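In the laboratory, one determines a bound structure by crystallizing the protein with its ligand and collecting diffraction data. In a computational setting the workflow is compressed into a single prediction: the sequence and the ligand go in, and a structural description comes out. We illustrate the idea with benzoic acid.
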Amino acid sequence: MIGKAVQQATRLIQVRGFHASRAHYIAVGELLPNIPLQEGSPSKEISSRDLFKRNKRALLIGVPGAFTPGCSKTHVPSYLDSHPQLKQKGVDLVACVSVNDAFVMKAWGESLGTEGKIRMLADPKGDFVKALDLAFDATGVLGSIRSKRFAMLIEDAVVKKIYVEPDNTGITCTLARTILEDL
Ligand code: BEZ
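The predicted complex, in C-alpha cell form:
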C-alpha cells in the first residue's frame, strides 16, 4: 500500500516536476490565466488577463533572465528591431515577462530602450510562468526557477500561437523574425 503511494507520488513528481521533458504548456485556444504581474515597481500590479484583453493582438515573450547575455544582446533586441513590422502586422502590444523583480525589469528595459515598444513585466515568484507550465529549474545557473524562452501571439487574452525553445534557453523559434514570418 505504502509502496504504491510512493510510486504514485514519484510519478506525480516526474510528470509535474521541472525535469520532465514534455510539452503540456498552455495551448492554442486557451485563455491566459489571471495572475498578477508587476511593472515598474512591486506596488504596480497588473492583471495578466486585463492587460491582454484590452489589447486586441499582442505578443508576449518570456525570457530566462533580465541582463543575461542572450536575452539582452539577441532576443529582446530582435523585437525592438522588428517593432515597426510587428505594428504593420497589427500587433498592438509587445510585452516581455521574466522571473525577476520589478526594479530589475525596469532597469533592464531602460538599458535596452524598450520604452514605448515593449512592456517589461516582472513575475517575481514565477507564479505566472508556472501557471502557463512554462517554468523550468534554472537553480544551477540563475539561482531559481525561470521562464522558458517562449513567444506567444495572444488575441483578447486567448493564445493563438505559441513558440517554445525546445532546450528552454536557446534562441531559435522565438526570434522576432521567425514570428513575423508566421503572423
Ligand atoms: C542567456 O544568456 O540568455 C542565458 C544565460 C544563462 C541562462 C539562461 C539564459
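Strands lie at 36-39, 41-47, 57-63, 93-98, 119-122, 135-137, 145-147, 150-155, 158-164. Keep in mind that any predicted model is a hypothesis to be tested, not a measurement.
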